[in-house]
Amino acid sequence: MNRFYEYIRHYTAHPVTSQEQDVLQHAFRPKKLRKRQYLLQEGDICRHLSLITKGAMRQYSVDEKGGEHTVQFGIENWWMSDRESFELGSPSKYNIDAWEDTELLQIGYDDWWRLRSEIPAMRILTAEMDKRHAVASQKRIHAAITLTAEERYLEMMKSQPAFIQRFPQNMIASYLGISPETLSRIRKQAFLRGD
Amino acid sequence: MNRFYEYIRHYTAHPVTSQEQDVLQHAFRPKKLRKRQYLLQEGDICRHLSLITKGAMRQYSVDEKGGEHTVQFGIENWWMSDRESFELGSPSKYNIDAWEDTELLQIGYDDWWRLRSEIPAMRILTAEMDKRHAVASQKRIHAAITLTAEERYLEMMKSQPAFIQRFPQNMIASYLGISPETLSRIRKQAFLRGD
DNA sequence: TGCCCGGCTTGATAAATGTCAAGCTGCTTT
DNA sequence: AAAGCAGCTTGACATTTATCAAGCCGGGCA
């Protein structure tokens, strides 16, 4: 938990009082997942926000032909959830599972909203998260409608090298919206040109 | 402004006191734009959030070849801004202009943050906006990486028919990430099959 | 009125990307 | 050690989508 208080202070510039630590400790629960274990399955309702403290996960959908489409990757200090299901209480269309052995801090919907009014730092943290999320979403949407497959990959190498290192190529491809074969060829081209 | 208080009450279930109306009235400024007039140009810093009270606008980038790529449409009751430029104070990569004659209510960065702490309804409104934005972004990203051009268009017809009615096809195409010709052919196909 | 221009369609062709099938490699499991 | 499997690559081919060029149509404007 101490790393979590540090995390909050880092993003909000608000130190967490020991009184607040008490409240936080009761609201957040640690959880461990083994590689390939589900955090959420299609049809479930997403009841928690989960902060990754260690490991790597992904959120993805599965189409009729069994193809997987990665909506989001997460590693240390990223929050995972199906935002739609969590906020609306609707059954999720996505799976979230662990690609590496993973450790999380989880908080439920009611606690999350309660803490936002009780602890100023949590209010700031939420605003900061939403802000970053909005900026990142706009970028990804713009990339999707504007760039070619190759440009999207090179852009991802620049902005998210950690994901490319920690997840296999077929998952990267499904994140970029292309087939694994196409990604393999794009990488070859880029390599032959000298990265 | 009265419609604005009504708007707030609708989304927050908090009536706006006359004291608060006073504060809001000083923070928000009305603005009118003629068709084709810019609200924001590439290179500008986006200093305001703008609520559309009447009209239709779009946010788009222009590539090296002069091609336009629509990131967002907005009509009545939609907020327009380049979120990245607004939050980070960086020069925008986008243009925002009016497609129809448009009326706005604008608020600056500092006022926006101040009102969030002063007026509870604004805090709720912000949270609600961020929530909806997050859900919509996730959907659009999922559509972009999962669906074919035709499926994306049909999906848009279902979820955003107002946009399709009020913006010309070449802009719809640039929103879907396809060429105007492809959209024209897709529509013909769909029509021949009976919608 | 008549012209011009923006928006839309259509056809021919090119480029990008997907699909299917095969084979390679390194790791895990037995 | 052998078998099996997941991830990656490659080739041949199919499909989707973009590009370029031409023409149509209707509304605003001289």
What attributes does this structure have?
4-stranded antiparallel beta sheet; DNA-binding; Jelly Rolls; homodimer; alpha+beta; 9 helices; 52% helix
Show the helix and strand layout:
Two copies of one chain form a homodimer.
Chain A: H1 2-12, H2 18-27, E1 29-33, E2 38-40, E3 48-54, E4 57-62, E5 68-74, E6 79-80, H3 83-88, E7 95-98, E8 102-108, H4 109-118, H5 120-146, H6 149-159, H7 161-166, H8 169-176, H9 180-192
Helix pairs in contact in A: 1-5, 4-5, 8-9
The structure holds a DNA duplex (30 and 30 nucleotides).
Describe this structure in words.
The structure is a homodimer of 195-residue chains. A four-stranded antiparallel β-sheet of chain A has the order 1-8-3-6. The first copy, chain A, is globular and about 60 Å long. Chain A has 195 residues and is an alpha+beta fold. Chain A is built from nine helices and eight strands. The N and C termini of chain A lie far apart (41 Å). In chain A, helix 4 (109-118) packs across helix 5 (120-146). Chain A folds into two domains: 2-130, Jelly Rolls (Sandwich); 147-195. Chain A binds chain B through residues 61, 63, 69-71, 82-84, 87-88, 116, 126-127, 130-131, 133-135, 137-142, 144-146, 174-177, and chain B through 61, 63, 69-71, 82-84, 87-88, 116, 126-127, 130-131, 133-135, 137-142, 144-146, 174-177. Chain A binds a DNA duplex (30 and 30 nucleotides) through residues 148-149, 168-170, 178-182, 184-185, 188.
